[in-house]
Design brief:
It catalyses: N-terminal L-alanyl-[ribosomal protein bS18] + acetyl-CoA = N-terminal N(alpha)-acetyl-L-alanyl-[ribosomal protein bS18] + CoA + H(+). This is [Ribosomal protein bS18]-alanine N-acetyltransferase. Its main location: cytoplasm. GO terms for molecular function: protein-N-terminal-alanine acetyltransferase activity. This protein is an alpha+beta fold and about 150 residues long. The protein has two domains: about 1-95, 3-Layer(aba) Sandwich (Aminopeptidase); about 95-145. It contains four helices and seven strands. The chain has a seven-stranded mixed β-sheet with strand order 1-2-3-4-5-7-6, covered by helices on one side. Strand 3 and strand 4 (about 60-70) form a beta hairpin. The chain is globular.
């Protein structure tokens, strides 16, 4: 049984422990949790196993980061987090949700495609390729009209 709920400063130590799920510093996480129009949800089973961070400005939002512990991936938790955020975004009068994703991240791209995200652009050579310091890969820019 999983539980989704807003994340608070009390979840900070658990978020920092999810090193395999994201690359944010503790200071960045603290800022996100304090963002007055940000959305930060966690998925608990029963401990924190995943999260989503979204920032909103006026009628647009950006999915900044979504992470699920490796041993919990493939169970639909990322989709549950996105599904839970959509009515919250609509409640803030957000009309468009944007994100960027590594071109090689086929699992994430498949997830976003299922939600109806469409590719709107590309950032050439944006991400460093892990374990290949001289190589870089493109970021795909996706958006979803709400």
């Amino acid at each position: 049984m999983v539980n989704l709920r807003p994340l608070t400063a009390g979840d900070l130590s658990d978020l920092v422990q999810l090193k395999d799920c994201g690359d944010w510093s503790q200071a960045q996480i603290v800022r996100q949790l304090a963002h007055p129009r940000g959305i930060s949800l966690g998925v608990f089973a029963p401990k924190l196993v995943g999260f989503i961070f979204i920032s909103t400005v006026l009628d647009e939002a950006e999915l900044l980061q979504i992470g699920i512990m490796p041993e919990c991936r493939g169970a639909g938790l990322a989709g549950q987090l996105i599904t839970a955020c959509l009515p919250l975004l609509k409640g803030q009068a957000v009309e468009r949700l944007m994100l960027e994703v590594r071109e090689s991240n086929t699992a994430a791209r498949s997830l976003y495609q299922r939600f109806g995200f469409v590719e709107e652009g590309r950032r050439k050579n944006y991400y460093p390729v892990p374990n290949s310091p001289d190589e870089r890969e493109d970021a795909l820019l996706l958006s979803l009209m709400l």
